[in-house]
Amino acid sequence: MKILAIESSCDETAAAVVEDGRRILSNIIASQVDAHIVYGGVVPEIASRMHVEAISGVVAQALEKAECTMDDIEAIAVTYAPGLIGALLVGVNFAKGLALSSGKPLVPVHHLRSHIAANYISHEKLEPPFLSLVVSGGHSHIVNVKSYTDFEIIGQTMDDAAGECMDKAARALGLPYPGGLNLDRAAKDGNPKAYSFPKPKVQGSELSFSFSGLKTAAVNAIHNAKQKDEEINIADFGASYISAVVRCLTENTLKAAEITGQKKIVLAGGVSANSVLRKEMEDICNKNGLELYYPELFLCGDNAAMVGAQGYYEYISGKKAGAELNAYATMPIDKAVF
Ligand code: KG4
Ligand code: ZN
Questions:
Q1: Which residues' Cβ are closer than 6 Å to ligand 1?
Q2: Is 291 helix (H, G, I), strand (E, B) or coil?
Q3: Which domains does the chain have, with CATH numbers?
Q4: pTM reported for the whole predicted model
Q5: Which one of 59, 123, 132, 239 is at 20 to 30 Å from 215 when CA atoms are compared?
């Protein structure tokens, strides 16, 4: 069964054709990085306008690359939440128009669910139940994935997301957008013990995260050094900072595995591309008899193939939307409206 998937939640206009939730027939991404780089981050209005310009061509390319027409497509899956509202609306509206004109069913897909589903493409045999650490620019969750469509958040950040925390420190260090990726690269050969960062004190449950203290500590240290004309070693500083963020993520994920008894750990979201997170999680899983899964690098960031993967499972579970489908800037993964 072929699903045409559309994603426009942030700064990538993407469309893909995915077969049976697992096989990519095409995966087209028009990235807007060059347009946002001068501003040091995503400018929502520019993102929306660029989605409008790109979306028709991107969807046409996805069909062409997959060597199919709308006649071969069973359903249209689209990211409807969460994300930048103006950006999401472009994808949702386009998908609605296409569903109406082609008579194909429309399947709304939650963005974070699709990040988790990227793993179904990278790991043919992976099936729920498992525990997922979902770490993106806007979210840091530990999710108990009970089935393809049943999710329970068991830990989350009380303030900033891990990705936001990486981006802000990168920016303060003068690294270009996208910050997390460039920080990861700059820190590659750094000494993670060179700088010390406080271990966050977290309100909430034992599985909650807090990253705002780390972020503020990093930004203040960089500004203080600048004022005193002191040199910051970017590789060492980046490595120490990433190590502090990753420690919070790995410790809580291990605790969550102990509490739930889950043996499979699945990384998801843009930050799952981080080399230190992958390595540290690998070590912890090996030591504790846990199986680790993460998406191939090209599926970690926003893309439509993952929307096609989750869209398939949502569709076969009976989920469909009509012409009234709206987009939502926020939407919990476990209590999604659709
Ligand atoms: O999932 P994603 O592409 O978009 C959202 O849904 O937010 O995640 C983007 C986030 C950004 O904060 C970006 O800096 C971070 O993922 N990121 C990374 C790396 N690659 C992307 N963070 C750390 N290391 C990386 N290699
Ligand atoms: Zn994302």
A1: 10, 115, 136-138, 163, 166-167, 178-181, 184, 269-271, 273-274, 301-302
A2: strand
A3: 2-116+299-335 (3.30.420.40), 127-295 (3.30.420.40)
A4: 0.97
A5: 132
Mean of the pLDDT values across residues 214-237? 96
Q: What is the pLDDT of residues 187-225, one digit of tens each?
A: 999 999 999 998 898 988 999 999 999 999 999 999 999
CA nearest ligand 1 atom 10, residue: 137
Residue range 269-282, pLDDT digits in tens: 999 999 999 999 99
Mutation choice for ligand 1 from 31, 139, 166, 310, CB with most ligand atoms inside 8 A:
166
- Going by alpha carbons, the residue nearest to atom 16 of ligand 1 is 270
Contacts of residue 324, defined as CB under 8 A and 6 or more positions apart, other chains included, come to: none
Distance spanning both ends of the chain, measured CA to CA: 21
Looking only at the bridges linking them, the beta strands covering 75-81 and 291-293 are unpaired
